[in-house]
Amino acid sequence: MYFCKWKRITKFKDMKKTLFLVFSFVMICFTGFSQDDPTAADSVSNPRGSGESSTFDTEGLDDEESTVGGFVPGLLHSSRDVFSNNTSYAFGIAYFKARGLDSKYQTIAINGLEMESLVTGRAVYAQWGGLNRVFRWPENVGNLDPVTFNFGDIGGSTNYSTRASNYRHQFHANYSLCNRNYNNRIMLTYATGLMKNGWAFAASASTRFGSQLSYVDGSSYTGFAYFFSAEKRINSEHALNLSFWGSPTSRSLQSNSTQEVYDLTGDHYYNSNWGWYDGKKRNARIRKTYEPVFMLSHYFTPQNGKYQITTNLGSSFGRQSTTSLNWADVPDPRPDYYRYLPSYITDDTTLQAWYTDQWLHNRDFRQLDWDHFYEVNQLAAANGERAQYIVENRVIDHVQVSGATNVVTNLTDHIKLAAGVDIRGYHQRNYKTINDLLGGAYWLNEDKYADGESPDNPYLLYDDLDNIGAHLGVGDKFGYDYAYNIFKQNVWATAKFAYSHVDFHVGANFTATEMWRTGYMRNGRFPDDSQGRSEVKVFPDYGLKAGVTYKINGRNYLVANAQWQTQAPSILDAFINPNIRNEYVGWVESEKDLGVDFSYIMRYPFMRMRLTGYYYMFRDVTDQFSFYHDDYGTFVNYAMSNINKRNMGIELGIEIPIGSMFTVALAGNYGDYIYTNQPNVTISADNGYDVFGSGFTEYDELVYWKNFHVAAGPQVAGTLGLKFNYKYWYVNLNANYFDKIYVDMNPERRTTAARGTLSTNSEQYQQLVAQERCKGQFTLDLSVSKSWKVKQNTIGFNVSLTNLTNNKNLVTSGWEQRRYDYSGYNVNKFPNKYYYAQGITFYIGINYTFQ
Amino acid sequence: MFKIMNTFNKVKMMMATLLLVVVGAGCNKELDEAPVLRYTGEANMTIEDLLALHQVGSVDSYSEIPEGTIITGVITSSDQEGNCYKYLTIQDETGAIMIKVDDSKLYPRYRIGQRLYVECRDMVIGDYRKNKQLGFWVDGSITGIPSSREAMYLYRDDVCGAEPEALVITSKNDIDPSMYNRLVKLEGCHFEEGGTATYCDPGAATSRNIVMSDNTQIVLRTSNYAKFANNVLPTGDGDLYGILTIYNTTPQLIIRSLDDVRMSGGGVNPGTTETLYSVDFSSNPLEGQGWTVLGDAGWFYWTGGPAFAIQNQGSDLIDSWLVSPAISGLSGYQDVFVTVDDVVNASANGLMEMYYSTSFNGTDINASDWTVFHNMETLPAGVASNSNFRIAFRYRDANGANWRINSVQIKGVPVR
Fold first, then answer.
1. Which of B7, B12, B31, B225 to mutate to test the interface with A (most CBs of A within 10 A)?
2. pTM (2 decimals)?
3. Which residues contact A221 (CB under 8 A, 6 or more apart)?
4. ipTM > 0.90, yes or no
């Protein structure tokens, strides 16, 4: 099969021999370097998603073929990467993930201090949302390339600096108008630069608001942000910097639905989360985030200039909360619940027609009925009964305290060494409170799903055994209350070696992660196992990386990188139903990741190019979720372990200047991301009872999904761009194509339990296992920017129009529902759900900069 | 320049290699496949031996089964068309048995031709009107395996195979007890009422006569829940397939679907029921459709359903009547019945009943005659065709008891 496409290409006939040689070389690189690490590439890239696409870097190409003493310059400090430069913005609309890597495989640091949540492994960008100007130029290291501010993850590393003296002395004002999540943004930024007295200050403030122009009905957005940084140069060797910032934001959430609902409403952005209340659109799902960060940095640069030590102490803390409807003994109030859809009502054509008609023509029918919630609650309250509907608030409070220090030194002219230590402590408390009783009298801390499950154990019903029967009001905790605690210590070192024709680097790190759960509520399902501290688990992990750059000449480079690492599992996957239990999943262990890439980089005045082949392997990955199991009639916990995956593909970026004003760019990724084994699953019933009819409360099975695709955005993406640049006019036109967009699979559908005795050729079986591949889509983007000098000052604007052809059929994420109709083998009972990319969006910004 | 070309060649090679690797990877690999369910144990008793454990007596009774007994057989029944309800029949070379299962949708998993193993565990073998069944003995009769416990007793094995060959019967006199619960083929027969009667009368399971070629008769027994219950029996001669059961002394054939009926005449227009009236809940039926609330207030139009709903939170009884308008358009139909989709939560002393009347004066409940009827009960001939035919829902309850009516339909079969 390897040669399936190549038989037709006769032109390469004489290449057989060389092909073999090169193929061998690639294979050696892929295998031989698996213990080492890579080099290469560059970059300071455009902060994506800020809308500031006008900031095209015009850094010139390096024209010199070779320089002094036969020393060929390395790739660092060269112009920006020709692939990411042309794709980072254009591919954003499709939720493209470079190399199919989840963001948890990226390191996001500020001043060298890692910012990822130790619970999710992902950075919370919202912590500095709206502060685009001061978080503008991070140091970006692509994928497996060498890093000097920490060890680096396989998906690349980013480091923002908030050092006050790094900001140029100027005042910057910006107003933006757009039809994205918010509609308006005002941002003011001022920096003093380093003053003669050794002080430097920088500050920024912004607000984002308005949602009338947004695509999604019933949405709202209000955000504020502040930033302050002060630096004092104590003497020529020491400097101290204190910075803090915060971004309190409140925004509404969009629902996701099945295609049936989108078709009935004729709207790919249909939002079931809102309903009319008091003449206004009220959204039941509001997310508020406010997690300020403090950071104290010390910079030590000795007189001899041989090394630099940077030390940081940081803390972030705050709250993220999300409201949601909750209900007791009443039907599911969500208008798009599957039982309210015409497809569910199959045995009564009259009723089905009626439902269809309501969906098509009655706009209120599609939305939440707040008045009804109030009516029911008020009636109940009048009778002294509990509220039937409430709005609950799911709260996540966290405190992180972290410290890191690193040293960077040039050991010799050829050797640069970087090493560091960082320590982080993370405490995250998760609980629910009552946000709004909706006219009701009180709420009870009871589990509605437990009702009637076991008549011989009445305590099953109570989420809080120590407060049975308590009448809860607004602000009271209920449901669950527990904390995740994580400590992580990391030591790392990397060394870079630069010689005339070869650069290489090596690196290693060692990490220890301790985790445990603390329960604060004694749950009726697990009275002995829900409160107090769980066992502490410790995961020792390590990473190794290496890479080599062979400089053929100043124009042509061959680069190979590799990184191997083990990573503690997310605490989210470590516990069986962490909301209420202290019990670890049976076989929780660190995952193992391998990343290898091999690139050819070319830099001529007439053409810049990077061509890369990459191969990533993931072993022993864990995953976990809960869902309502229709066969067992209860919520079950689905803990997956030993998931193996493999991502491979090629990246290509080419830029060809045409004359002095135009550049044609072509960039794309052809990837193939698949599962490579049959992972284990442990299914356990939430209620801890034998609901399987087998005499056990949990059972294990295998998921047969080898060679099925991992859902990781479009695996094929390409863009053809035309850039124009003349007298500070910048125009970019990009035509983009996305394909191989797979929906995320429900593993349960690929098990023997789900398949039963269906024969392979049966239509039912084929429907059951088929993984939907969404249709490939084209989009078109245009951006224009221009700036003028007015004396010392600059005024400028930028306009960017995304998805000019208004394509509303691009699926950004799709997934199979976890619920599955075991008894009927009917995959259409719980069909796939989707999010669609927005149609045409605009972003207009006006900037004024006083020097 | 030479250097450049040289490099280009290298580039070409590299691109080719990379493409090869990726295209190779992209070529579709064989997708994984979960193994079919297999049963790992072995059967240790034939169905014949199992049947021999129980002797049928004068009344329904049961016998115990030795611990660890496992039987196996191939499934012959299907509830897909609603005629075989809450049971499976399986057979091996030695005999056949009916397994009671308290589950109304068995066919997707337990299909005809599927090999099934039964771990008998604590089940018993007993009889219902002389027909032997496997299940549990509760309060004097055999009940089914609870649906949540199926996995403990029933084990499918391998993909579904072919339907077992049917045992040919040409006369009632051929029948002996070893054939009960088996798949049979009644060869050369016709329906006594072919072309005139339906498979089933509305409201209750019905027996029809099958006339064999020697003029002996076997009963065809059809449930009113069968999807084809209202189809007219075909004419002509032919063969019938189905499960042969016994009811006291009467052998009965139960067909699984119309595919089991292979008559030469065929082609009879099925006399399906038609929906003659249904409440339109898209707007308030209490406004403009003629529905009224009489007696105590209570019934209301619940937009959340939408439905008619009533709930009395208080402790004093209320007696609230929801009365329909006079319903016309029912003449010209026979076997008229009312079907109601509702949710009833009545208290012990409550009364929630449905009535019909042909004498209501429009205002005074007590001045007219009301007759209780039940869901899907066939109304007496002539009642529904009365121009003042009305139905009513009476709620007489308290303490939070509630009743919700999601749909009300009146159906009937056109008079031929």
1. B31
2. 0.77
3. A181, A182, A183, A208, A209, A210, A211, A214, A249, A250, A251, A252
4. no
